[in-house]
Specification:
Eight copies of one chain form a homooctamer. Chain A is α/β, with parallel strands linked by helices. Chain A has six helices and five strands.
């Protein structure tokens, strides 16, 4: 049995590679899907496909339509969702993805630093499990195969 | 026909009263439900009911369990959801509520200032309508009765 | 028992008034909801609320977002959907509304002239009943109370 | 990961071959399903199977029952739906298929020429992404694998 | 609390009146909805509304489309379904209605004589309760208010 | 693409073998699942597993519980349902299975002789396609791959 | 806004009266529904309606079919479910009702003594809120109106 | 066709190995998933991953969050659920899992000794089949392939 894991969250660092590497080291039967992690590509994808937009609102909206399309396709393929929150960004789309996953009954793990306990308390309460580190999230996934 | 409107979002100012007042001035057949807007009460409700918790994590988690219970009860009663984002807070629970509402096919309006176009672009794209002011949100609701 | 009927379809003539008058003459316990039937108002509602848009695409898209919001709110209140097609317009939004209604298990009646049998054959086949006149649609509704 | 794409829309030209060819050129892991594209076969399938019908209404209705059966089977297999609208036909069944797909949470792309912005505005607003060319639709699909 | 009860089953005798009378005698807060019980009216309703059909197949199919419309509207209003089977008719539509009700999670009671235990065994096994008499079905409903 | 077809209906003759043979002759990518077709085995399965039951009612009910379990498992695996009605039996369980399939949005074909048009008219109206012969049902399936 | 509360759990003491009294004292707009609380009546209801059964298994099964019918009707009417566990009984049906409620997205409160923390830990984790006393459960409900 | 079977129930003996062995002896095409069966591991998993908790309540709650995550992942993969109840434990989580499975339309078999007929009567009534021994449960599964 292989599980597909959607990795929601910030696209500003290499945390998804860390997840994949640790899963590989433990020989877990996992494959990963994720949003576009090239930040410039993600922001420009609307205009890249549909051409220059008249203002920033529509530049952002067309980009979001393509990114949301991608997310919907890949999340529907996923058995599990991990959503990581860091300290630096608002990441409302991460909260949106995690909440959509929970509403669709996708088993969901939140990763967030201790400093974000308070602002993420409602989402943590709705998710299946909330952890602080990538290693802990991998431990939860490993336990499914245990 | 009366519509029940759930007002998700920040609880630090009186924006819900403004919504209700403007709806009353226009004689719209609307009733409003909302999260607990007394911020201290909201944060303390877990310990108020269940007693002192061993640390902040569990103080927050018990509070969230009661607040999420309230939200689930009231949002299931709602025909429409309005989610307001301001510039000052992370409001991940607002994004969570809006995303849950959209996932449940509740018609949803986002109110956010122009400065938040970029960080809210994915959620705006999924919501039915995104506006910048309370008056505009009321205009959308008024149009349903037009 | 009162039934709420959503009247989808063209907004260029007074067919909805005819439906309502005939229902009243027969004392049927029906109430009606519908899209905005003032055509100019419907096309302008996006800019009326959100301000001038940079081009026709976005003028139309903002108007549609408000009109789709209205449709979603009112169709969720409806027990029955009637969708009328006439010969003069493309009315893809009528086909969209009828198909959404059928997908949501709303009992659905199509009204279309004989001349549209062929282009509407797939939708007619999916709807519960297809008739040619408003009187026949009223007969179907009357039969529910018979 | 392979994605199955349902190609809804007109069956009067070879646009589906273009989609498939472009996907092959880009080595995208896509397979395509579609309605019957032989127009005469599609219109005659009811009588081909069930024998001559008493009039055109029932000739069309029996054909539609078989075509709708096919569409339902194949769309349930699809991960993504692309609906193409051209300028020449009413294509209400395309609008019906697109709306059914959206109601079933199938990620959906609309392709339509600039001239159809206005009549398709409500459907475009509900779909995930609307583009003007087949190349742009392929770009959206390619982005999912990016 | 009032419960709406859909009474599926044969329309050749007055069993629905018996149910209603017994409920009234016991002052149960029940209201009843049902298919058209005038058998000739039920069989003719398609042609009554849509005009003469070319053959019996289409006479029956148009009648069924209107009767199924009625059933869908009323069953969606119902809190409970009672399906009565007698010895004289095939009543496949009764089995269809009961199975649809069970699939929609409507609490369902089957009434059937002892002689029909064997042919109805699968449906009885899926229904909530199977009884042999109208009085027993009323007893089950009365117990809800007990 | 292979389709799984559930063959509901009478278990007193070899019609399922005919379906499978014809599908094989046409090289259709179909596999078939079905209820237990050994009639004695089907009726006795409850007592075979659970031991002698105190009377015929419970003999039948335990058999049905196992047969309904089997049907639920296999129908959930099916992409398409074919339900065949013959002239000799009441086959309420066939009507039950077909109606459950339709309620679960399984594309459904009814096979019934001309003599059963009237008693099966409501179910035929709800199914996707109704045909009179096994060959016609195979033609419908073949058309999906056409 | 009135909320309907289903009170699942043991029927051996008067805890439901306590809940109702406390709600009344606080003027909460709540109405309550519940299983049959007369224990003998609950156990005998199958035979009371259907006559003497051949053994205890079937005596219990017929009683359960009527009790489950009642529960399904009333829980579908409920906005909120409270499930109380005491120390004396196995109460698997209470766990069944609570789990069904949670699966149906009914906001759910568990009441259990401290001594049952361990055996109820999985159910508590899935419920919205777990408390130890009836007063605490009332506090949670009161907070919804706060 | 292979079926995935989730084995819910007590983790204090080797009953799952017996199930797997008997299935293997009969060459049934079954694979099995299950909760963590190492009891100490199951109880400690919360603290093993998240670190020492401030009290037993939270030790249990964190363990449950990980165990419920595992159950949700694996049960969503399952075609069939078997829930075994023994005489020694309260096993409310087994009742919870069985009820969740039934609510999700997973075909479900209960195994329980004769001594538990009465306390499990409501759950038995809702499950598809209730048997007393592992051999009987295997017989039910074997019958699906028969």
């Amino acid at each position: 049995m292989e599980l597909v894991v959607y990795l929601a969250g910030q696209i500003h660092d290499d945390w998804r590679d860390q997840v994949a590497n640790k899963a590989r080291e433990k020989n877990l039967s996992l494959s990963f899907v994720a949003p576009q992690t090239n930040h410039d590509r993600s922001d420009a994808i609307g205009e890249d496909i549909l051409g220059e937009q008249p203002n920033n609102l529509y530049r952002d909206d067309t980009a979001s339509s393509v990114n949301n399309f991608r997310t919907q396709v890949l999340m529907q393929k996923a058995d599990v969702v991990i959503a990581l929150f860091g300290e630096s960004y608002r990441q409302w789309n991460t909260a949106m993805d995690a909440s959509a996953a929970i509403s669709l009954n996708k088993p969901t793990i939140i990763i967030r630093p201790e400093s974000l306990i308070h602002p993420l308390k409602e989402l943590s309460n709705k998710a299946n499990v909330t952890v602080e580190t990538i290693d802990q999230a991998i431990d939860v996934l490993e336990y499914v195969f245990d």
